[in-house]
Amino acid sequence: HSLYWFVHEGHLDSVLTPCDILSLLLAAMGHDAGHPGHNNEFEAITHSSLIQTYGEESVLEHFHCDKTHEALETSGLLTHLNPVTVEEIRESVRTCILATDSTKHFPILLEAEGMGDIFNLPVARKSIGERRTLMKLLIKA
């Protein structure tokens, strides 16, 4: 995925925390986990079981979040981390995967537009919300 290149070559460690970078990479790997081969519109038109479970907004993205979190639980990848860090990573992964819904593209751009030049702020001066907005932009790149 191109995100690895952005992290490595773009020196994102200066604008994101290690947990943010891990979350971003996990989200990139899981953003289409279990994809059934249909789009959200098809799921809505057919009143699929996914619509019954997740509702009509970002149905596939919610499904991908669940599949990704399920894989993380099964793998034990995060078990060595403290519960607060694990919850932060889980929420960041969720935020990033939900951002891959194409209907969220322009709202995310508007959100970022009001933040100025976030890439030039050091990591310590960014809130978790600002960092997650940056992560939403990166997962869409």
Summarize the structure.
This protein has 8 helices and no strands. With 141 residues, it is mainly alpha-helical.
The biggest beta sheet, please? Answer: none
- Sequence of secondary-structure elements: HHHHHHHH
How much is the average pLDDT? 92
Class per helix and strand makeup: mainly alpha
Quantity of strands, as a count: 0
Unreliably modeled segments = none
Care to describe what's here?
The protein has 141 residues and is mostly helical. Helices cover 62% and strands 0% of the residues. The chain has 8 helices and no strands. It has helices at 2-9, 18-30, 40-45, 49-54, 59-75, 83-98, 105-113, 128-140.
Topology:
Elements (H helix, E strand, L loop, with lengths): L1 H8 L8 H13 L9 H6 L3 H6 L4 H17 L7 H16 L6 H9 L14 H13 L1
Helix pairs in contact: 2-5, 2-6, 2-8, 5-6, 6-8, 7-8
